[in-house]
Each structure stands twice: as structure tokens, then as C-alpha cells.
Amino acid sequence: MRCNPSSLRTFRRALSAAFITGVSALPFAQVYAQDAAPAELETVVVTAQKRTQAVKDVPLAITAFSASDIDRENFTDFERLSTRTPGFFVQQSTDSSASFVMRGIEAGNAGAIAEPSISFFLNDVDTSRSRGLLKELFDVERVEVAKGPQGTLYGRGSEIGAVAVYTKKANTRLYDWNMEGQLGNYDLYSVGGMVNMPLIEDKLAVRVAARRREREGFQDILSASKPAGSDDLWAARVSLRYEASEALAFDLIVDHQADNDNATITKALSVASPGTDTNPFTTFDRNELPVPQQRRQTGVTLLGDWKLSDAWTLNSITGYREVTFQEAWDGDGTSYPFILPVNNPDNQWLTSQEFRFRYDNKGRFKSVFGVSFYKDRTKNELSFIINEQYLLAGFPRVLTPVTSFYGMPVTTGNQTDLYSALSRDSVSAYGNITFAATDRLVLDAGLRYTRDDATVRQRSTVSTIDGVRAIALPNGLSNSLGQTFSHSQTYGLTQPRLAVTYKINDAMNLYAGASKGIKAGYPQISFAAPVGGVAQPSYSEVKSEEVVNLEAGFKGNVAPRTYVEAIAFSYDYKDFQTRSQDLTKGTINAGKASAYGLELLGRTKITPELSLNGSYTYLHTQYDEFYEVVGGALVDYSGHKFRLAPEHTYSVSADYRRPIGQNWRGYGNVNYSWKSDYFFNNDNLTIERQEAFGLTDLRLGVERQDGTLRFEAYAENLFDTQWYRDVGNTGKSFGISTVIPAAPRFFGVRLTVSK
């Protein structure tokens, strides 16, 4: 691992801020050291280090949400959950499409080839590619968001963090059920429920959970009868648990999710369709889409837990996931037939197996080590149609198409059909050791080695929809001339971590750590102009990108009813993979970058009725060296900020619950989250920037004291704040950036009934 001197200096400054925050709490620590685990505050346990620990005892930045957290605020998606998570930023356009950003680094794109920067695990099974990334949160035990390089503990794709979702398993000793219903604006209805049944007491049980949700779109389309932005979801999960003995148990989990949202809204930033305007939040128009957006996810997971002895445990994690996806979108965000709606099917098949050994004899030494196998088969197809009559006329500056060019007829549709596929076989071995050197000082060290064998296959064909020969792009957007080419590479990835924890007392810890994250590279094929009708492929690779992270922090209870965290971090980022603005280049490695920041989190119970929560993140990002040739000209982005990386974010929330009579209580829950301005693209254009904004969520309701019946009214984005999810997109490469507007105010009522 290496780190440049400037990053070390900024890290020391950030570390000083975190240390001062921690030390300022020490007087409270001395007072409350003997009573530092107040019953009033829920203790959330996590398994980031592959064993059960309280959050404060884990020497890394991790934010966890329990089942009660998720239920209380009705977190069904990651966008709202991320507003309560320091250093985590999610923009969720539909149930099938999102941008995950951790400490300024964005997860990999939606293509078949690129590897992710942020891992996503469902019940310890990796499902990180963006099309399978989003999961509906229902009947969930907890969500863990681990920030910083986590490849040692989590494995592939955890270059800058990992998100882990654990669903509730079947219980062999409890009959349980619940039901839920919602009604809201834009014709929302949602129904769901769960039933848990022991089939053989203390031996075999089944748990079934499901949710159905539908909401109409919120933005009118001039030429369509139904508005855009709809939500249509089916999700179900069946879990079986078999306890063969006190030492051996298995969980079989089968899940399926079907999303049928209509396409992501895109509206041109600078060109209005006839009959509309350029306001991103008003009626827009587009060309007819050839296919609807659809996604199907199916997963099968088998978990085995075998207690070999008092000290040794063996876990087996077997996973299979299949994702089929298709969508179409309007690339130029107008009804002008310039970039015609494209068709983009995307499919993935994944199998994985992990064997994990844990050692814990309740002494000073603990360890976990294991091996994992991962097979990923992904393919992506993209049909891209460009109307050369508009292209040669100079659209978007000129809105009138040309029909001839130097006496030659001009095609109305030059179609490129791109095909790319990836086969990746991965083998990994890892270990992590924890050693309590003294009663107060704990050392952690870990290492993972991964071997990736990756093969890429690519081809493209070109045709015209009217039979007229293309002039501007005779070979379409690629030059493979219909031939399939393949290229293979092998990658060896070594990811270490070191951490030290100092226990101030039983309630509070200081920690410091260093870790290295790697996002695997991949083979790449590019094509020069054909010579004599023969394709000219060029074989290269996108290098693996690396992050070296230093962080230190304070975690713990500073009073019986108050928990705080203060974490400082700094990282160096080299060979980062980014999408070139030149469409013919695909993904490129673009130099060096660095960042540093501070994350604060706190929660307190002012009274038995009133709880307060808050978080704040400061994030400074910068491209240190970033040069790119675009259109034959050298462009320097050095000194620019990362995309989707606001410098300041914070959230504050309050939850108040008070008895009403003998059996009931009323409650109110309010959350306000705020982000400073940020850019949407590497060029940091002012017109492609999101101004600072805040969002407010409110919930008011009544419930029985035993929690068996609840009725509430809610509003999300209470004040109907208008903001952008993204700006630029496909049209930016053709001089016509498009905007994806965020959702307006949603409100409704919710009823839950449980045993």
C-alpha cells in the first residue's frame, strides 16, 4: 500500500478533528463508564467481520439499520435509506436503475463488462451488477452499509464499500404473521404480508413473505395517454429452515422480484419538443419506445451453519442468481427523431460458493478464513439508431433536417446493434485475525487474494431502417463489421487491511485502520476504421483501479441515552475507470484522484418518548491528474470534483411516541436531509450542476402498545422540492444533455396488523 504526502497531511487534519470530537466526550465517558449500555437505546449487531459484534466494536465505518428502523420509517428503497447514512448517496430512478455512490466513488455502470466499485450482498451472496443491485426491502432483519475499501472482508467489487441485506429466516419455534396495506397519491396501492409456520417443532419451519405495489407515473407525456415515472412491483420470498441438530442448521431461501416500471424520464436540457418547454419538471415528449422496461430477478440461496466444536464453526454459502432485463429510452429527450429510442436487453447468470471457518474460544484470539468461487456470465445488447438527416443538419442547433448531402440521399435511421458478453471465473482465499493484545488494545489484520479469469466477446452490425446508405457513420458506432472478436485477461488482486482498536471503557472505542481496495480490470476491444472492408480490432485492457484508504474514528455511548460516532478518512485513487466522452473509446483509465472527509453520527433519547438522530458528512474530492482526448483535443479535468459528490450533507430526525389511554399511543416521526451543490459530470459544467436542496419526510400515526395494530399518514418530500437525479446521459455525447427529474411529493396512509 502507498499514500502520497499530501494525502497524509489531509488525513492528519481530518484525524485531529475526529480525535477532538472523541476527546470532548471523555468527561461524559468517565461519568457513565459503569453504565454504558443503556436499555433505552437499541443495540444493532452486525457481521461485517464475519462474526456478531456491536457496531461500536467494529474497526471500520459501518452504519446499520435494524428491522425496527426499517419498519418505523417504512424504508422500501435505498434512496431514502441513504439520506440517513453518512458517506452514502443513492439516486434511484426506478426499481431497476440507480446510482450508488460511496464517499464520492460511484458503482460500476450498467454494461456487461465493467466491474462494480460497491458490492451488494443479499444474505451473503454477491449480486453487485447494477441490473441486479436494487432489492425491495421487505421482511428484512437488518441492512449494513460498510464504507471504505472492504475487499478483504467482503470480496470482489468492494473497492470503496459494501451494502449487505439480511432477510428474516424461518423460525422453528414461533408461529407469526403480519399484513400491511397502503393507499396514496398517484393511485398508489401496496399490499404485503408474512407468515412463519413451524412444520416440525424445533426442526423444520417455513416463512413466506410477499409484496405487491403499483403507482401511476407523475410526469405527463404529450403524445402518450399514461404519464412517466410509474412503479409496478411484485416481490416474494420463501424461506425454509431445517435444524438437523443443535450443532447443524440449514436455511434455503428462494426469492423472486418482477419490476415493470415504465422507462426512466429523460427531458432535453436545452431543446424543447414542439408543444413543450425546457423545464425538467413539466410535460415532456419523446418518441415511442419499442419495449417497456422490465426486470426479473430470481435467486436461490442455501446457507449451512455447522458448529464443529465449542471454538470452531463452519459456514457454507451457496448462491444462484439470474437477472433478465430490458428497457428502452429516448437518448435526446425530445420528440425530434434524432436519437431514436434504443433497445437494451441485459442478462446475468451467477453462481457462487463460499466456505467460511470461524474460530472463537472466548479468549484473546479470534479468526475467520475461507475460500470462495464465483462464476459470472453476463451479456448485453444495445440497438442505437441515429437519424443522419438531423445529425448532418447540425441538431440540436438546427432543428430542420436535411434530405441530401452533396447530392447524396441521407438516411433517416442509421442503426448500430452492439453485443458484448463477459465470462468471469473468480477464485478467492482470505483470512482475518483479531488479537486482544491487552484488555483495552485489539489488533485486526486481514488479507484476501483473488484470481480473476475474464473473457470479453464483442461484435456490432450496422444497417439503416430505410435502406439508404449511411454517410456520416457508415460503420455505425463501432467498426467490427458484424464479426465477433474475443479477448481474455487474468487478474491477480491482493487486498490487505490493518486496524487497531483502543477501548476507552466498555462503552467507547477509538480505532484507526488502513485498507486497500481494488476494482478488477477487464479486457477491452476497440476498432479502428476498416481497411479494404476488413475489421481492424485492437486488443487492450482497462487496468484495475486501486484505492488506498486511511481512517480513524471514535464510536460509543457518551451517556446512557446517547451514542455518537466521529470518523475521519483519506484515500488515494489511481487508474480510476471512467466512461470517456468519446463514444468510440468506451471506458478508460484516467490518472489519479484523492479525497478526504469527516463523518459524524449521533442518536439520543431525550426522554422515554422523544428520540433524536443526526448525521453529517464533509467530503472533499479532486481529480489530481485527469487528461482525456475528446474530438481530437486534449481536455484537462485535473482539479475537478467527482460527479455526485456533494461537499456537505446532513440529516436530522425526531421520533416522538406518547401513550393515549391504556392500550394505545400516538407518534410522530420527521426527518430532514440536506445536500450541498454537486456536479453530474467530470467536466463540472455549471449548467449540469445540482443546486443545494433539502427533503423532508413526515409520519403521524397511532398504534397499540403491543405493536399489533398501527395506522399512519405519511408524506415523503413533504414540501414537493424539485431536484435532479441526473443530467447529461446519452445525449451529452451529441451536444444535447438530458435531465432525469426526481420524484415529487408522495403521500398516503398505511395500515399494519400483526400477531
TrEMBL record:
Keywords: Cell outer membrane, Ion transport, Iron, Iron transport, Membrane, Receptor, Signal, TonB box, Transmembrane, Transmembrane beta strand, Transport. It is found in: Cell outer membrane. It is a multi-pass membrane protein. It comes from the Bacteria. Pfam families: Plug, TonB_dep_Rec_b-barrel. InterPro entries: Beta-barrel_TonB, Beta-barrel_TonB_sf, Plug_dom, TonB-dep_rcpt-like, TonB_box_CS. The keyword Ion transport applies. Residues 55-158 form the TonB-dependent receptor plug domain. Residues 262-718 form the TonB-dependent receptor-like beta-barrel domain. SUPFAM superfamilies: Porins. Its main location: membrane. Gene3D superfamilies: TonB-dependent receptor, beta-barrel domain. Residues 1-29 form the signal peptide. A motif (TonB box) lies at residues 43-49. Belongs to the TonB-dependent receptor family. PANTHER family: FERRICHROME IRON RECEPTOR-RELATED (PTHR32552), TONB-DEPENDENT OUTER MEMBRANE RECEPTOR (PTHR32552:SF81). This is TonB-dependent receptor.
